[in-house]
Amino acid sequence: MSSPKSAVGAAGQALLQGGLDHLCLGSPAPEELARFYARALGLSLTSTEGGWWGEGSQRRLHFVAGAKHSLGYAAYRVASAESLDALRRRLFEAGAAVLPSPSPRFPRGLCVRDPDGNHLVFDFAPETEAVSCPGQVRAARLQHFVVASRNASRISGFFQDVLGFQLSDNVVDEQGAVRTSFLRCSEEHHSFAVFQAPENRLDHHCYEANDWNAIRDWGDSMAGERIPIVWGPGRHGPGNNLFLFIHDSDGNWVEISAELEHVATGRPAGVWPHEERTLNTWGRGFLRS
Known about the structure:
The protein is 21% helix and 36% strand. Helix 1 (8-15) packs antiparallel against helix 3. The strands form 2 sheets. Strands 13-14-15-12-8-11-10-9-16 form a 9-stranded mixed β-sheet. It is of the alpha/beta class. It contains 6 helices and 16 strands. The radius of gyration is 18 Å and the shape is globular. It folds into 2 domains: 9-124, Roll (2,3-Dihydroxybiphenyl 1,2-Dioxygenase, domain 1); 141-279, 2,3-Dihydroxybiphenyl 1,2-Dioxygenase, domain 1 (Roll), CATH 3.10.180.
């Protein structure tokens, strides 16, 4: 697949101010997984053909049958109908096949596969008002997801050259090899990241809360549901955001984040060393790559 160099500027700008709208998680037990997220994130659940749909305030998840740690698809909301047209032209110039959308929310969206086979859907859809959810619901917007890949540089290149995402930071090892790339489609530091690993899989997805006090409140909320914090609180190097992590019922990492860095237009991509302190400037880091 060739890189559409002539379209990089236009389509890259077209995706700015877009964002992650919803994710589809595969699971051997999709109903159990859906009910975990209803409890942990206050999602209202609706049964769908072959799965479950969960929706809360600025967070939406689709649960379908599949292997553990598998991504059914990721769906991004673009800035306008014109942005979607620009992306369609970009995909055509890149020779990327446009597939039928698997998303019930974006049934007419543009769907493409990355080199690892992950399905990515794009559509124009203004953010809707918060839906009513059971119990006390705290603010936290679905903000990014991260995958592991046997060929992380190829995935990073696809997101930049074909989809128009911009590189915010790379994490490199002592030999200079890139181990992790953080990419953005808005001013927020990253809405996607990929790291080098022995297998291709979903690693985690993240929900952006308002501030440090919200991290505390989410910790209290998880404690009330007897869901343990497995990492954090801490502060990432790339993105400079505060965080805590839990595991869902399938063992996927789930992050609550706050105060993610906003990247100025034209800022050169940063380079970080592959070490624990990069993952957590406050202490222990999990070097999953």
